[in-house]
Automatic annotation (TrEMBL):
<dbReference type="InterPro" id="IPR050054">
    <property type="entry name" value="UPRTase/APRTase"/>
</dbReference>
<protein>
    <recommendedName>
        <fullName>Adenine phosphoribosyltransferase</fullName>
        <ecNumber>2.4.2.7</ecNumber>
    </recommendedName>
</protein>
<dbReference type="GO" id="GO:0044209">
    <property type="term" value="P:AMP salvage"/>
</dbReference>
<dbReference type="GO" id="GO:0006166">
    <property type="term" value="P:purine ribonucleoside salvage"/>
</dbReference>
<dbReference type="GO" id="GO:0005737">
    <property type="term" value="C:cytoplasm"/>
</dbReference>
<dbReference type="InterPro" id="IPR000836">
    <property type="entry name" value="PRTase_dom"/>
</dbReference>
<keyword id="KW-0328">Glycosyltransferase</keyword>
<keyword id="KW-0808">Transferase</keyword>
<comment type="similarity">
    <text>Belongs to the purine/pyrimidine phosphoribosyltransferase family.</text>
</comment>
<comment type="pathway">
    <text>Purine metabolism; AMP biosynthesis via salvage pathway; AMP from adenine: step 1/1.</text>
</comment>
<dbReference type="InterPro" id="IPR005764">
    <property type="entry name" value="Ade_phspho_trans"/>
</dbReference>
<dbReference type="GO" id="GO:0016208">
    <property type="term" value="F:AMP binding"/>
</dbReference>
<keyword id="KW-0660">Purine salvage</keyword>
<dbReference type="InterPro" id="IPR029057">
    <property type="entry name" value="PRTase-like"/>
</dbReference>
<dbReference type="GO" id="GO:0006168">
    <property type="term" value="P:adenine salvage"/>
</dbReference>
<dbReference type="GO" id="GO:0003999">
    <property type="term" value="F:adenine phosphoribosyltransferase activity"/>
</dbReference>
<dbReference type="Pfam" id="PF00156">
    <property type="entry name" value="Pribosyltran"/>
</dbReference>
Length: 171
């Protein structure tokens, strides 16, 4: 049985000094690792009915689309400012230094739709919480925030307390 940990590598001092970045590109480069990772992410979702998977730019798009296809759900991209062509909801969020904004199309989610939020990594949780706020603005019901991995010491799940948070790997 393939172990997906073997396909995630640590990159020291990226994107800046002192940070150890979890790089998923070896996992994306191996079809057996992709298959296993998708299987494990789906196990976390269980039997929940999902109407739409929301993937966060950009690494949330890879498995987000695969999850949507397997769950017979639609896919909705959440993007950085200025990338989406139609009217958007906007959600500012705090970075370590400064602010950023995420956007989602206003008509991407209908009131009451059951939503799975997906990203590759849960670190401090600011990005995922901004994504949750965007989904709530449209009236979506967040079934789960779903990640390949979570960096435990950064306590991202503290920012997602009102949601079900599921990660395949914990570091
Ligand atoms: P947070 O807002 O939880 O601090 O950061 C999560 C976001 O930053 C996610 O969109 C994720 O893709 C990215 N991110 C933060 N740290 C890492 C990392 O070590 N590896 C990868 N692949 N992405 C990271």
């Amino acid at each position: 049985m393939i172990s997906i940990e073997d396909y995630i590598r640590d990159i020291q001092d990226f994107p800046k000094m002192g940070v150890v970045f979890k790089d998923i590109t070896p996992l994306l480069a191996n079809h057996l690792a992709i298959e296993r990772c998708l299987e494990l992410l789906l196990e976390k979702v269980g039997d929940e009915k999902i109407d739409k998977v929301v993937g966060i730019e950009s690494r949330g798009f890879f498995f987000g689309m695969l999850l949507a296809q397997k769950l017979n759900a639609g896919f909705v991209p959440i993007r950085k400012p200025g990338k989406l062509p139609y009217e958007t909801h906007k959600e500012p969020y705090l970075l370590e230094y400064g602010m950023d904004v995420l956007e989602m199309h206003e008509d991407a989610i209908k009131k009451g739709e059951r939503i799975l939020i997906h990203d590759d990594v849960l670190a401090t949780g600011g990005t995922a919480r901004a994504a949750c706020n965007l989904v709530k603005k449209c009236g979506g019901e967040i079934v789960q925030c779903n990640f390949i991995m979570q960096i435990d010491f950064l306590c991202g799940n503290e920012k997602l307390k009102s949601y079900d948070v599921a990660s395949v790997l914990n570091y």
